[in-house]
Structures are given as C-alpha cells and as structure tokens.
C-alpha cells in the first residue's frame, strides 16, 4: 500500500513560498526594504502626498501675494471718445483719449495681517503634511504586521500538515499489519485534508496581504520580521517620556491660528481694495486745433459697508469657531486614544505570553499523545484531537503576535512617532 502524501499542487505552492521569492508584480519594486524605505515609498505614491503638496504650493503662493507691492493685480485702461461738430467753413470732430494704470492698494495694517495669515496658513499646511505622513506610516506598519502574522500562521499550518502526513503514513503501515482498522486510515487521511485546507487558507490570506503591501508601497517584498519585532520591543515608557505634541494636535492648533489670521485679515479689509490710478489724457477740439494734455491722478476707496462685508466677517468667525471646537475635540480624542493604546499594549502583552505558554503546553501534550498512540495506549481519535488543539494554539499565537505589534503601532501613532 502506498503512503498518503500531499498533492503536487500543495508542494508547488510551498516550494514557491519557502524556497524562492514571491512572484513579482508588474509594478513592483525588487528588493527587501527597510521600514523607513517602505514608508518613504508609500508616501511617494499616496494620494495624501499629492494633496499635501498642493496645499503647500497654495500657501507659498498666498505668501507671495501678501508680500507683493499691490493688493491685487494692476490694471491698464485705455479709452477714446469722438464727437462731431459743425462750425465755420467746414465740419470737424473733437477727440478725447485717456490711458491710465491702476494699482490696488493695501489698507493700513492690511498687508501685515495678510502676511500673518499667510504664515499661519503655511504652518497649517506643514502640520497637515506631517499628520498625513504619520497616517501613511501607520498603514505601512499595520500591513507589515498583518503579513508577519500571516507568515507565522502559514508556517504553523505547514508544520501541522507535515506532522499529520507523517502520522497518516504510520497509520497506513499499521493498518497493513492489521494493528489498526481501516476507519483509522480514513480518519488520518481526513485529518491531512483538513490541515491542507487550513494551510491553503493561510496561504491565500498571506498572498492577499502581500498584494495590499505592493499596492501600498510598490515593493514586492516586505520588511524583515526581525525589524518589526525590534521596533515593538522598544520600551513604551521611554517612548512616552520622549514624546512631544503629536502631529494631530499640531495640525489642530495650526488650524486655529490659521482661522484667527483669516479673521484678522478680513477685519482689515473693506472688501475690494482701494485703487490708485495714474494716467494721461489728451483732448482736441478739431483736426486743426492743438490738443491739450493733462495728467490724471485718481483714488478710488470702497466704503466697505453692506451685507457683503458682514458676510465675509461672519464666515471668518464661523471658521474660527469650528477650528476651536475641533481643537478641543482633538485634545480629548488624543487623550482617549493614548490611554486606550497604552492599555491595549499592556493587555496584548499579557495575552501574547499566555498564548505562547498555551501553545507550548499543547505542543508538549501532542508529543506525549503521539508516544502514547505509538505504544497503543490511546486511540487515533484522541491523537487527532490533540493535533487539532495544537494547530489552533499555534494559529492563535501568530494572531496574538500580530495584535501585540498592532497595539504597539497604535501607541506609536498616538504619540506621533515616525519610523
């Protein structure tokens, strides 16, 4: 009788997983990145990077406008008027030509308020950029930990398959010698199939996580598990003692200063800026007459009255009220998130230690049951249950490791720590 063993497809999948690198995607970057390199790569292709870059360019343009000589773009005006007249021996015409250049002017204190508002806007754009980078770093860390958990789960599942295949071979030989019933052989083969399906499910989840990683970072391969574990071993108390103001609060505070600057600029403004016009005018009473030329100097000052100015001021005050409320909410949320992250980090640490001890105990129990089965002291059904319990404990240990890593990632995100 031939020995029961896994099919060629499963062997091919495992060979591709453990002996060679993952298959390269069309857009993937070859090589194994560090965590910093993965975060940088993810930032380069992230939508948030495009948005943050556009906000920075807009803030820089606003600063250039605030520092310019004119409050708005200058304008060039030209006009010509002609009128027919009749008198004397012949008919003629009068002409009037005028050309002028208008400069929109800053009101007293308006330019300083505009510069201050532009600086606050630039600080807000910079704070938002840092917050967006931290969000991308969190996604990279979370995906890396997910892959590490899936890899550990797959290794445990493959170990279970190997153990059950070996057991099925032993059962098959003992059935051939008449020591065991054929039903035991069928049960052992069913156990192998069950373990192989669990292994394939783990492989499918791992490949899905790797695909998400490639989309996120552009890399084919993931960060070394040892680097992620080394980051997770950093003392949490040391992290908290060195932590400053997280980017989320910096961005919320910058949003308040930005709204305050906008309100101050609106209060200094009358709506449309005053205009100074400098020009020249030439008037002629007829074809033979000598034209009169004059210098034109005009000043146009809007009164800044009415509902339009009130609407602008109300809009600016509303934006400030919203920014202040968001800052208060951000502070409360940060305190709650930090407390939850610290608690989660401590609890997952205890759970990980418990899962490690449980997996070790059930693994020892499985080895004891195997010896008892070989001595004929227990039936095959009990051994198969021991294998199933040990496999479940190994999968739970892999999951607990990932939860511990994700809890550490949440703590790093709460205090605003970059890789």
TrEMBL record:
Domain of life: Bacteria
Cited SUPFAM superfamilies: Outer membrane efflux proteins (OEP)
Signal sequence bounds: 1-26
Region (Disordered) residue spans: 263-289
Pfam families: OEP
GO molecular function, one term: efflux transmembrane transporter activity
Keyword Signal: yes
Annotated keywords: Signal
InterPro entries membership: MdtP/NodT-like, OMP_efflux
Family recorded in the similarity comment: Belongs to the outer membrane factor (OMF) (TC 1.B.17) family.
Stated name of the protein: TolC family protein
């Amino acid at each position: 009788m031939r020995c029961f063993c896994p099919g060629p497809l499963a062997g091919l999948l495992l060979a591709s997983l453990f002996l060679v690198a993952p298959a390269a995607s069309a857009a993937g970057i070859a090589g194994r990145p560090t965590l910093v390199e993965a975060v940088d790569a993810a930032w380069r292709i992230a939508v948030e990077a495009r948005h943050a870059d556009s906000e920075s360019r807009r803030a820089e343009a606003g600063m250039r406008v605030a520092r310019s000589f004119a409050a708005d773009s200058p304008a060039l005006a030209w006009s010509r008027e002609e009128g027919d007249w009749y008198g004397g021996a012949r008919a003629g015409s009068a002409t009037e030509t005028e050309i002028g250049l208008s400069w929109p002017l800053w009101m007293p204190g308006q330019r300083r308020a505009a510069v201050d508002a532009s600086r606050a806007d630039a600080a807000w754009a910079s704070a938002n950029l840092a917050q967006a980078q931290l969000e991308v770093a969190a996604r990279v860390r979370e995906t890396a930990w997910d892959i590490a958990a899936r890899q550990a789960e797959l290794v445990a599942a493959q170990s279970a398959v190997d153990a059950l295949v070996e057991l099925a071979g032993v059962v098959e030989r003992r059935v051939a010698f008449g020591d065991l019933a054929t039903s035991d052989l069928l049960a052992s083969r069913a156990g192998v199939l069950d373990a192989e399906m669990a292994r394939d499910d783990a492989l499918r989840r791992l490949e899905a996580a790797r695909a998400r990683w490639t989309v996120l970072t552009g890399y084919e391969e993931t960060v070394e598990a040892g680097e992620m574990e080394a980051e997770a071993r950093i003392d949490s108390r040391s992290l908290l003692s060195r932590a400053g103001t997280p980017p989320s609060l910096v961005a919320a505070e910058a949003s308040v200063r930005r709204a305050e600057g906008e309100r101050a600029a609106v209060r200094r403004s009358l709506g449309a800026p005053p205009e100074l016009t400098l020009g020249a005018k030439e008037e002629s009473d007829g074809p033979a007459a000598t034209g009169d030329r004059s210098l034109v100097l005009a000043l146009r000052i809007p009164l800044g009255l009415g509902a339009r100015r009130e609407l602008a001021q109300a809009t600016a005050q509303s934006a400030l009220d919203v920014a202040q409320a968001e800052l208060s909410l951000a502070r409360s949320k940060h305190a709650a998130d930090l407390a939850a992250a610290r608690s989660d980090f401590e609890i997952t640490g205890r759970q990980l230690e418990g899962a490690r001890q449980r997996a070790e105990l059930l693994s020892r129990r499985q080895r004891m049951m195997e010896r008892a089965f070989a001595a004929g002291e227990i039936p095959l059904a009990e051994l198969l249950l021991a294998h199933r319990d040990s496999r479940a404990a190994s999968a739970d240990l892999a999951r607990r490791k990932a939860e511990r890593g994700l809890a550490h990632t949440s703590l790093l995100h709460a205090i605003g720590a970059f890789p």
